[in-house]
Amino acid sequence: MERRLAAIVAADLIGYSNLMEQDEAGTLSAMSHVLESTIEPLVSEHNGRIVKLMGDGILAEFGSVLDAVKCAVAWQEKMKRDEINLQFRIGINLGDIIFQGGDIFGTGVNVAARLEALADRGGICVSGAVHSEVKNKLEVTFEDLGLQTVKNISEQIRAYRVSGLSSGQHDVLQTKASNSLPDKPSVAVLPFENMSGDSSKAFLSDGISEDIIIGLSRFKTLFVIARNSSFSFKGAHVDIKDVGRKLGVQYIVEGSVRQAGNRVRVTAQLIEAATGNHVWAERYDSELKDIFDVQDEVTKSIVAVLPGQVQQDVADRSSRKPTNNMKAHELMLQAKALRDRLNVEDIAQARILLENAIALDPKYARAHMYLADTYVVDLFLGVATEGASKLSFDLSRKGAALDTNDVYIQDQLGFAYLCEGLWDDAEVQFEKTLSQIVNEAESMAWCGYAFLLLGQHQKASDVVLKATRLDPLHPPALDWILGQVHFFARRYEDVIRVLMGDALLNSMAHVFLVASYAHLGRSAEAQTALKTFISERHREFELRGIEFGENTIETLAGGYRGVWRKQEDWDHIVDGLVKAGLPMSAQSD
Predict the structure, then answer these.
(1) Cα–Cα separations (whole angstroms), residue 531 to 46, 515, 580, 582
(2) Are 443 and 432 in contact (CB under 8 A)?
(3) DSSP string, 185-216
(4) What SS3 class is residue 234?
(5) Residue 269, CA atoms < 13 Å, CB-side half-sphere
(6) Minimal CB count within 10 Å: which of 151, 313, 355, 582?
């Protein structure tokens, strides 16, 4: 393994999934022709090398950043000049990379991929480091896009668009979602700004924003961008037109929350994204105990000014109150944030908060649901105590009885059946839940994961990919699911690509990484990943006070077995671990 400075080019074929669906053979043939006739010769001519092909993606490395940009410009111009019916977006970064076994890794590569996601169709987006090196050396102009917050990169990055190359019609995020965006008014709710002067109160403004998203999502006449894509702009100074273009929506909702003692003031405004014109604005002053009435009123007011009419019965359903106890609601929001990290220490903390929330309001359905889910995650990770599945089942049924309409609660009921080994009941429940989901990307993705556990690989893939399109800036938990979907489709390179980074949330993610390297025959990387898995598994056991013996599949991974319905699926995981060098049991060592 060696490190070096390099210019990295990441390219992606736009609309690949849709093209494959329409004409699989023709798309593969066209892609192969473009690679051989255009891309490979240009990369070679500019002293670069193609590191790897990833279905619809291409990763290339150059020793000179000037060569990298020249190649990308020539690439896009030739595609247009020859009127080739394929379009790429390209990101270029200059950074430190790790070189191992012919492949490249590291933050430098990740930034290039994120820049590619910011590029327009047929366009090029470069980092500030690239711009500094080439700005006076090429006959192209650059448009400063400012600091950008991008997925899985902790610090903002400065980005520049190469002008004159883009069709200027759609941003890449809109293009990625265009196949699934329905012909209906589309809206994104940005995280409301916390104006209380106390960062600990941020959960209140976040909670209001999230509940408005949930409320709007129940209207089937609207298309609502999922929370995690909207919340990627939290804390950033944003241009409304730019946000609308990136998320592919017609309308943006933004606002602020100011709390002083027992009083709260919520301001909200609806903006037409293309023009920046304010369509509607309102201010709400209320006692904190009436906060859910405020949220309901804001939601209804926003919907009232959007194109189209909303049926009254749907409007009535959107105004359901989750709880009248504000403290219980605060605890639930804090617990959910911990639960979403899917690791054993945060799950334990979330459980305590949820137990306290239920003590304050025994009829709070969402609190019951998330408390049940903490036991499900423990079961997934093989660290559950005796009776956890029964406890989860009882809590899930109680939550469902308290609220019969919440798809998240219905989702959780399905997992309760699954963890009890009631496979047929679980399947029926997830089919029912999926039929009720409109815009809830998170719930949709977890339904897809359930179908994976039930052995329905193709259905799992279809559902999870649809969820990720609905939430293009989805959180690591969805990538954690997606990586496992790729594994059972035998797309091992995609498993590694998706799971490397923030999606390595727990030991189970490490298992799929180990097995994927092993199935690809990359034994050195498999053994390195195996050592990391063993270390992480020991840490999980120690955090929960679980005694363990020798390092075997039976000891370290056996706890995962219970949630996989089909023996052949479990065997597929085990086979990868065996290939990586982990013995089945102490006797087989």
Answers:
(1) 40, 13, 10, 10
(2) no
(3) -EEEEPPPEE-SS-GGGHHHHHHHHHHHHHHH
(4) coil
(5) 12
(6) 313
If you average pLDDT over residues 235-260, what whole number do you get? 81
pTM listed for this prediction = 0.56
The architecture of the domain spanning 322-436 is Alpha Horseshoe (1.25)
Write down the domain spans for the chain: 2-170, 180-318, 322-436
Start-to-end C-alpha separation, the chain: 29
What Cα–Cα distance (Å) separates residue 335 from each residue in 215, 338, 354, 489, 506?
A: 21, 5, 6, 33, 18
Query: Do residues 306 and 284 make contact, with C-beta atoms less than 8 angstroms apart?
Result: no
CATH architecture designation of domain 180-318: 3-Layer(aba) Sandwich (3.40)
Contact 112, 93 (CB under 8 A): yes
3-state helix, strand, coil in the chain (%, to 5): 55, 15, 30
| Residues composing the chain | 589
Topology adopted by domain 2-170: Alpha-Beta Plaits (3.30.70)
Map 456-488 to HEC letters. CHHHHHHHHHHHHHHCCCCCHHHHHHHHHHHHH
Alpha helix positions (H), 142-255: 172-177, 202-217, 227-230, 240-247
Q: Which tens digit of pLDDT belongs to each residue from 490-533?
A: 999 999 999 988 899 999 999 999 999 999 999 999 999 999 99
For Cα atoms 499, 505, 507, give the angle at the middle one, nearest 5 degrees. Answer: 95
- Cα Rg for the chain, rounded, in angstroms? 25
Question: Average of pLDDT values for 72-94?
Answer: 85
Which of 116-120, 139-143, 585-589 has the least mean pLDDT?
Answer: 585-589
Vertex 345: Cα angle to 344 and 346 (nearest 5): 95
Note the pLDDT tens digit of each residue in 148-191.
877 767 777 888 988 765 433 333 333 333 333 345 677 888 98
Q: Please, are residues 64 and 71 in contact by the beta-carbon 8 Å criterion? A: no
Under the banding of pLDDT at 50, 70 and 90, the label for residue 319 is very low
